[in-house]
Amino acid sequence: MCELLLPNRIPGSCNYSKESAQDYLNPFRSSYIPTESPDYSNISTDSFDRYYFSNYNPPIDNGREYSDQICNFLQNIEIGRKAPKTTIISKENRAALIDWMLWICYEFGFVDETFFSAVSIIEKILLKIQVNINSLQFYGASAVWLASKLHETQTPSVEDFVNLCNYEYTSNQFCLFEKELLQACNYDIIDPTADNFTSAFLSQIPSDSNFNDCAKMLIHASVFSPSHAYMKPSHIGLAVFTLAKYITRYPMNLIVLPRSLQYFEEDELNSATISLIEGLKIAKNNTDSTFRVKFAEFLQYNSIDIDFLKNKMQEYISTNSLSSTLES
């Protein structure tokens, strides 16, 4: 192993210890006053890196400290944005559309925020413009392309999306539809999603990888429900933790989560939980879905009886309250 050498020094010529060498190289010591530019060519990079990485303290994550403020801010945005209960496409077509969008995000390696923003955008599309059922693939790809510009550091070109659609649409059609979509939404396409609340909630509690994987799986399943568009994202996030606690037998008290919200409605939580179970059933029953590929490992080692789960949650609703399950 190479020795850590002082700049412009010959090894063995002076009685410098390794500690004194490290002190010399530490620019944060109080007595450090450089008199000349040191020559680092004789310094072992192995020792140099080992010293700095051994003394590296990662920055403090302030997500937990500000999670309540984040939830309150997101809830203020979601007020008044509840979509009307209008069915534009069938349950089967919606499931195929959402899974197609999930496949695009999975194929490109997009972050989860891109997928959930794309779902929010497609729900706006289905409500604000005249929908051609035969063009759902085009709508889904356009929504993902637009969402990727909001969250990704490297956005695929429009030609990549043309290729995904087997060249059934041109790049010019994608660009024109993007303009039409933005004008129909009055350029207001950024809404809080249930994934935003789930991330804020996770920062407030200690949890293991199995619980985190379960919550991640459930939040993805929630968007497959036909009623997802008119559920409050904050309460979908609570429903995720209600079910994840039951499925994984999580022992911790989670009552801190509803208390972190500015407002909380028990009936809304009940509806969101049943809606989430319905979405999970739709996503899980499609054996060829991208959802099953993405969460294959969790589903393999965690058996979930969806009908039993639904009956159990309905039993809680009729005899007690779902929010009380977060305390037990």
Automatic annotation (TrEMBL):
<dbReference type="InterPro" id="IPR036915">
    <property type="entry name" value="Cyclin-like_sf"/>
</dbReference>
<dbReference type="GO" id="GO:0005737">
    <property type="term" value="C:cytoplasm"/>
</dbReference>
<feature type="domain" description="Cyclin-like">
    <location>
        <begin position="99"/>
        <end position="183"/>
    </location>
</feature>
<dbReference type="GO" id="GO:0000082">
    <property type="term" value="P:G1/S transition of mitotic cell cycle"/>
</dbReference>
<dbReference type="GO" id="GO:0000307">
    <property type="term" value="C:cyclin-dependent protein kinase holoenzyme complex"/>
</dbReference>
<dbReference type="GO" id="GO:0016538">
    <property type="term" value="F:cyclin-dependent protein serine/threonine kinase regulator activity"/>
</dbReference>
<comment type="similarity">
    <text>Belongs to the cyclin family.</text>
</comment>
<keyword id="KW-0195">Cyclin</keyword>
<dbReference type="InterPro" id="IPR039361">
    <property type="entry name" value="Cyclin"/>
</dbReference>
<dbReference type="InterPro" id="IPR013763">
    <property type="entry name" value="Cyclin-like_dom"/>
</dbReference>
<dbReference type="GO" id="GO:0005634">
    <property type="term" value="C:nucleus"/>
</dbReference>
<protein>
    <submittedName>
        <fullName>Cyclin, N-terminal domain containing protein</fullName>
    </submittedName>
</protein>
<dbReference type="InterPro" id="IPR006671">
    <property type="entry name" value="Cyclin_N"/>
</dbReference>
<dbReference type="Pfam" id="PF00134">
    <property type="entry name" value="Cyclin_N"/>
</dbReference>
